[in-house]
Specification:
By secondary structure, the chain is of the alpha/beta class. It has helices at about 1-15, 15-25, 30-45, 70-80, 100-105, 120, 145-150, 155-160, 180-195, 205-210, 235-255, 275-290, 305-310, 350-360, 360-365, 390-400, 445-465; strands at about 55-60, 85-90, 130-135, 140, 165-170, 195, 225, 265-270, 295-300, 320-325, 335-345, 375-380, 405, 430. The strands form 2 sheets. Strands 1, 2, 3, 4, 5, 6 and 7 form a 7-stranded mixed beta sheet that branches. Strands 8, 9, 10, 11, 12, 13 and 14 form a 7-stranded parallel beta sheet that branches. α4 links the parallel β1 (about 55-60) and β2 (about 85-90).
């Protein structure tokens, strides 16, 4: 009868390779081929295809071994739909054999959620945004999610995902065992694709600040804690934060699908420059932004070294650009986007930039920068001396403020050039100063800076609040 057919189908969905083999043992040879195909089809689940429709569509792409990420994904989906976008959910392919999963006590996958194949991966550019659900392994993304990103090389070559928003949600076994770094490490994949990163910030309010109970959720995104044996399930608070993250992410997606704002937009270029390299990059970026019809205001951050030290270092006089003080921080609220020029010190932003961000605590507490766009450009003394890590370690400032991080991706083909030594990366424009500061930004580096300014201005005009 129909009831037994449903039961058989459900059993087939949850069958392991061993179960299928036993079912075939006493079957006549002439029926085995058809049976294998039918059972495999049932086990594989529905075909991966785009079903989401409408003006704004989002793909939730996740891996879940014990069900924690899947539970969070379902709640993210509810939030996205509440926010007015259409959603498809996909699992990434499993990389472990059935017997290994069985030994690890992993339950069967949800056969109602399709598993991505290369055909569907090649069509991901049809979506307007992405939410990635990532369990941690040793504080970084699991191999299954990394294998998925490795499947997206075709999109990287075409930069067909560039400019689309992406967010992340995670699960860890322990407290502080990847609750932040799993999100952060994923940024490299997003930056190379040119995907904008939409953090949660502290939009979850009071529950995120609670120290009365164990809980996930960070300014990077929703999260849960599974415990070492996977026995802990997502709490009510964690599911609530996942739902809210989905709703807030939907808002960001919708901002990318509207007409450009009619008013004149403004970008703040905030920078620190000891020897003038970052200042030259800032000027080039400002010209490109202004050429797109966007107003630019340039600010230097306050110097923390005294004149005697600067003289001993051979630093030239500062430019005439306005120095942003604590009393003038509110001026940033008039900016729709903020680009930060960051020289490196030991592969990280210098103390002057850190002091600037430390002074913005009042803006952070009031959530006044949430939703604004942010980007960075850098200068290092040597090749591979912070060309990427200076951007990477600067991003948490944007994340904690809830600002949308806009990497450059490979918007300019010059980034691929091997004809000469040059700065620039998918994170943003950059230059080399040389060990003595004698080298100046090259023609190709200034060109990359101009392209970054142009692409950032385009996003600001589209997404200004």
């Amino acid at each position: 009868g129909s009831g037994s057919s449903v039961d058989a189908a459900e059993a087939a969905k949850n069958a392991t390779d061993e179960d299928i083999q036993k079912a075939l043992e006493n079957m006549p040879e002439e029926k085995k081929a058809k049976a294998v195909a039918a059972l495999a089809s049932k086990k594989a689940g529905p075909k991966a295809e785009k079903k989401a429709s409408g003006d704004q569509t989002v793909a939730i792409i996740y891996y879940s071994m014990y069900g924690h990420i899947e539970g969070m994904a379902q709640e993210i989906k509810k939030g996205l739909e509440k926010g007015g976008v259409s959603v498809d959910m996909f699992q990434v392919p499993e990389t472990l054999p059935d017997d290994a999963l069985k030994m690890m006590g992993a339950p069967p996958k949800n056969a109602d959620v399709p598993t991505l194949d290369m055909e569907m991966v090649s069509k991901l550019h049809e979506y307007d945004g992405f939410m990635f659900g990532i369990p941690t392994r040793f504080g970084v993304m699991c191999a299954q999610m990394k294998a998925f990103f490795d499947m997206t090389g075709g999109h990287w070559m075409k930069q067909s995902l560039s400019g689309k928003p992406a967010g992340t949600f995670v699960s860890t076994g322990t407290q502080n065992g990847g609750q932040e770094l799993t999100h952060m490490q994923t940024l490299s994949c997003l930056a190379h694709h040119g995907l904008m990163y939409v953090p949660f910030g502290y939009q979850g309010g009071g529950p995120m600040f609670s120290v009365d109970e164990i809980h996930g959720a960070s300014p990077w995104g929703a999260s849960t804690l599974a415990a070492g044996d996977g026995s802990r399930k997502p709490s009510e608070m964690e599911l609530q934060m996942a739902n809210l993250q989905g709703e807030k992410f939907a808002d960001a997606v919708k901002r990318t699908k509207t007409a450009e704002v009619s008013r004149k937009c403004k970008v703040g270029v905030v920078y620190y420059s000891t020897y003038g390299h970052i200042k030259k990059m800032a000027d080039e970026i400002a010209k490109a932004v202004e050429a797109e019809g966007v107003e630019v205001v340039k600010y230097q951050v306050k110097e923390t070294l005294d004149e005697g030290v600067l003289t001993a270092m051979g630093a030239p006089p500062k430019s005439e650009d306005k120095v942003i003080e604590h009393a003038s921080l509110e001026e940033l609220l008039a900016c729709d986007g903020i680009m930060v020029g960051v020289p490196t010190r030991f592969g990280q932003p210098p103390g002057q930039i850190k002091s600037f961000w430390d002074s913005t605590g009042g803006l952070w507490q009031a959530g006044k920068l949430v939703g604004k766009l942010g980007a960075s450009f850098v200068s290092t003394g040597t090749p591979q001396g912070g060309q990427e890590t200076t951007h990477f370690t600067h991003v948490p400032n944007f994340v904690h403020h809830g600002m949308i991080y806009v990497p450059m991706g490979y918007a300019d083909p010059s980034l691929l050039s091997m004809d000469e030594l040059h700065g620039g990366s998918p994170w943003g424009a950059s230059t080399y100063a040389g060990a003595t500061g004698a080298r100046q930004p090259s023609e190709i580096e200034l060109k990359i800076a101009a392209v970054q300014g142009k692409t950032f201005a385009a996003k600001v005009k589209l997404m200004a609040i």
